[in-house]
Amino acid sequence: QVQLVESGGGLVQAGGSLRLSCAASGRSFSSYTMGWFRQAPGKEREFVARIWSGGSTFHADSVKGRFTISRDNAKNTVDLQMNSLKPEDTAIYYCAASSRVFATRNLSEYEFWGQGTQVTVSS
């Protein structure tokens, strides 16, 4: 019965910033690996970042140094701070949860998904 509800998407100019937030239901949130993925029109869904229960993070090379994933286990939330946005960051961004304690960047490891939120970066 896990549900993920996302917010924070929108339209920004290149070089701007945006912060996405994902609120999760359930009492097992603190044990989940949480991840962010994105999907542009006509393309495969791709990994953006993940964070383990204890706070260890990993980011895709394409966003490293610009995006930061974080979580608050007490609030059952996970955020994605996006800075220095580029037009190629334009996509629908999805929050995802995995029952694996140490899930990786593989999409198949994530069982629960949010509805997605649109991020559009204009040039």
Give a structural overview.
There is one protein chain. The chain has no helices and eleven strands. With 123 residues, it is mostly beta strands. The strands form two sheets. Strands 2, 4, 5, 6, 9, 10 and 11 form a seven-stranded mixed β-sheet that branches. A hairpin with a 6-residue loop joins β4 and β5.
Mean pLDDT: 96
Number of beta strands:
11
Along the chain, the helix and strand elements come as EEEEEEEEEEE
User: How large is the radius of gyration?
Assistant: 13 Å
What portion of residues belong to β-strands? over 45%
- Contiguous low-pLDDT stretches (5 residues minimum) are none
From the spread of the alpha carbons, the general shape counts as globular
* Total helical elements: 0
- Helical coverage, percent range: under 10%
Distance between the termini: 40 Å
Structural class: mainly beta
Q: What's the main sheet like?
A: 7 strands, mixed
Keywords:
single chain, mainly beta, four-stranded antiparallel sheet, 11 strands
Short structural description:
This protein is an all-beta fold and 123 residues long. The chain is built from no helices and eleven strands.
Secondary-structure blueprint:
Elements: E1 4-7, E2 10-13, E3 18-24, E4 33-39, E5 46-51, E6 57-59, E7 67-72, E8 77-82, E9 91-98, E10 112-113, E11 117-122
Parallel strand pairs: 2-11
Antiparallel strand pairs: 1-3, 3-8, 4-5, 4-9, 5-6, 7-8, 9-10, 9-11
